[in-house]
Structures are given as C-alpha cells and as structure tokens.
C-alpha cells in the first residue's frame, strides 16, 4: 500500500559543514509542514518555517549582496499553477508572496512591485541585517575590494571577483492524497551582484510539480538554470523511468556537464522518493505516513 502523505524538505546543498542548528530547524519545520492536510499548504508552511528560522539562506537568514543588502527569490507550484517572485527585498517570506502570486493573473513578478503587493497583502517585512551579519559583510567585502562600496559603478564591477557558491537554499516537495506540490526559497549567493536572479524562481529548474513528480533543486543557480534538472527528471519519469534511477543519472549528468553544481529532492505520484547531490553536503528531512 502506497503512503498517503509524504513531505521531504531540503536545507540546501553546498554545505562545507552542516550546522547543528540547521539540523534542528529542518526537523522542526518538517513536523510543522506535515501537520497540514494539503500538499500545497504543507510545502508552503514548511518553507515559511525555514525562512523564519534564520538558520538557512532564505527569509530572515538570507545572505547579503555586493552592497550589503538582501534580495529573495521563491517559487511554488501545485496542480498546474505556479507562482514565483524574484528580487524581493522588503518582504520577510518570499514563499508566502509566491503563494499569493500563484492566484493572480501575472504569476511571476519581481522587484519593488512584488514587495508592494506583499505590503498590500499585509505580509510581514524583512527585518534589517543584524549586527553580526553586518560586520561579516564588511569583513567579506573588504577582503574582495579593500573598501565598503556605497553604490554600483563600472569600476566596482571591474574589480568584483566574487565566486558563485553558497549553501542554505530551502525547499520542500509533498505528495498528499494523490496531489503533488513543490516550493523553493533562497537569498541567493553571498556577495552576489545586486539584481541577480538564480534558479529558485525558475519553473523546471529550481522548482517543479505536475501530475507525475514534485521537485525542488538547490546549488549554483546559473548552472541549474542551464541544466533544468527538475524538468529533465519529470520527462524521464513520464517516459517510464523510475524516480530514483532517473534522479541518480540526472545528478551525475549535471556534474559531468557543469562540475559540482547541484542537489535535488523529489517525490513521484507513485510514492517514490529521491534526493541526491553532487555539490558538497546536502541537508534533507522526510516525513511519511
């Protein structure tokens, strides 16, 4: 007999060492998300919980960009509908905003307009960087540039040598009573270019669900968008491949093509579950009933 309820969470890949607090929070958020009766509510609430925990690179815990600010990306999908937001900088929970956007005519929005919708909806604001993170930003940017920039300039861009790497993106996939849903949220890459958009709000790359699978990816955004792992996985399963076999092959193919780059979690309509990574360590939690 197939399980009726499955919820799988990830706390990102690319971790050099997984922090004990992150393990505690992902387990707590898995319990919280599993208390909901629909796949959509389960993934949204699990991701919102991780955003609010401050233990991951999402929501309150998001990393800072080149100018010491934060911008958030998120995507959610359920029963043929998608909602996605990018470059959200004044909203605490990008995933809640993406969930609301799912029901609006434009289902992908970005920047100040996205934040304005969040304000109209009464969603809580993103708090300012705490003192510890502000000091860490100043240390990091001085190592790269030798000074703290106040605004973007061509000279600044020519000196910027940041690498696209990081960890702590969050995501969730669920199968509940035969329905599949997926959600992903991130703060992007530490010291990223302001305005950068990664894979998390891109359907088929950072998040995906249909009648066959639900998938959430994490890793180096530009490489994930180039590879579109969730879309590839859905196509393979639709052709009759097993989720685990297809998942392993896609994770390997991504590494062969692009180098260490990504991890993903997925669940199929048959109740199969897969997670795997080719990029350092990945944090995963699962609940089944």
UniProtKB/TrEMBL annotation:
One Gene Ontology cellular component: cytoplasm
Site (Cleavage): 168-169
GO molecular function: asparaginase activity; peptidase activity
Protein name (record): Plant-type L-asparaginase
Enzyme Commission number: 3.5.1.1
Pfam families, per database record: Asparaginase_2 (PF01112)
Stored InterPro entries: Ntn_hydrolases_N (IPR029055), Peptidase_T2 (IPR000246)
């Amino acid at each position: 007999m197939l399980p009726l309820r499955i919820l799988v969470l990830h706390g990102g890949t690319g971790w050099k060492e997984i922090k004990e607090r992150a393990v505690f929070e992902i387990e707590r958020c898995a319990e919280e998300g599993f208390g909901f009766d629909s796949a959509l509510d389960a993934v949204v609430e699990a991701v919102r919980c991780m955003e609010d925990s401050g233990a991951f690179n999402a929501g309150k815990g998001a990393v800072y960009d080149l100018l010491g600010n934060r911008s958030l990306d998120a995507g959610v999908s359920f029963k043929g509908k998608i909602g996605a937001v990018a470059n959200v900088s004044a909203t605490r929970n990008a995933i809640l905003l993406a969930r609301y956007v799912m029901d609006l005519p434009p289902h992908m929005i970005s920047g100040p307009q996205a934040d304005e919708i969040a304000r109209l909806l009464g969603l809580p604001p993103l708090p300012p960087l705490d003192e510890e993170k502000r000091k860490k930003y100043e240390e990091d940017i001085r190592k790269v540039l030798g000074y703290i920039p106040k605004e973007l300039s061509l000279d600044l861009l020519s000196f910027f040598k940041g690498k696209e790497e990081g960890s702590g993106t969050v995501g969730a996939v669920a199968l509940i009573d035969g329905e599949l849903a997926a959600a992903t949220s991130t703060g992007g890459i530490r010291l990223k270019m302001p305005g950068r958009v990664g894979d998390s709000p891109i359907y088929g790359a950072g998040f995906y669900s249909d009648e066959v699978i639900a998938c959430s990816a994490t890793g180096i955004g530009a490489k994930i968008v180039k590879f579109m792992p969730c879309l590839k996985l859905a196509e393979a399963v639709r052709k009759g491949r097993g989720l685990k076999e297809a998942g392993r092959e896609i994770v390997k193919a991504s590494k062969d093509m692009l180098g260490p780059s990504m991890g993903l979690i997925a669940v199929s309509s048959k109740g199969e579950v897969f997670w795997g990574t080719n990029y350092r360590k990945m944090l995963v939690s699962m609940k089944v009933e």
